[in-house]
Records
---
Amino acid sequence: MNDGLRKGFEVEIGEGDCDWPAVRKALKEIGYTSGWATAEVSGGDRDRIAEIAKRMNDVLP
């Protein structure tokens, strides 16, 4: 928070201090099993989109 609200957007999915096991646990607790998820990151070409998809699959198996 000291660096501003947008600072977190400079970190790639799966890096930084997000507690992904806790996120997965919370999703399980509300009954989420699969479906749509949105990555709020900068886009790019086909390779960048593939990287984003891989990172999302890594943290949200």
---
Amino acid sequence: MKPKKVCNHVGCNVLIDYDKSYCAKHQTDKQQRVTSDYDVYDNRKEIGGKFFQFYHSKAWKRLSYSYRLRNPMCEVCLKKDIYIKCDVVDHILPIRNDWSKRLDENNLQALCHSCHNAKTRAESTRLSLTPLNKRG
């Protein structure tokens, strides 16, 4: 007789064989999640188009890496006399607004994840408040 364990699905207390991960009920949920995660990636790739390709290009990876070497601290935090390592190289003016500035070092800034998320949130809020006929 094989040893039993609880199903890995949160809140499920069904006992299953030790070499399995999910009970019969939640096995299908797991398969659907994997499919949907793949679909999300494909959807982002399709919607992102040239932007998605750009952020995976050698030119961007090289520029981003060299910029982080020259600017190892978050520039926003540094202005507040807080010393935090930079995690992301961000475009000051988003490349969706001006594609020609995608490799312009004057349009880059080194940010920590917290500052980058705050900037992105502020940009998306501004974008959602902009009337549809004025979006670029």
---
Amino acid sequence: MQTDSKFYNLLGLARRAGKIGWGHDAACDAIKYGKAHLCILTSDASERLKNEFRRECSFEGREVTLCETEKTMDEMKFIIGVRAGVLTVNDEGFAKSLKRYILNGGN
């Protein structure tokens, strides 16, 4: 649970710093214009949305890390204040820290 707490804290801090894009259009734009360093999909996002962002993150040589987390849209609402199935982290430092917690369980 400590890992979840650190994840929540980092994501909330990134949100307050204005480094998060949430929702379909904002996430697409951040990826398309090279602002996104990390794309997070919630576990309960639709398969259509997941497939679209899997393609979008690697389209034309883009190298945006895509993480499909076990967090739900409701948990994301608790963290960032907005219910969204997809969000991007638009800051390299926050993205690196969040990737460590998502992919390696905080280790």
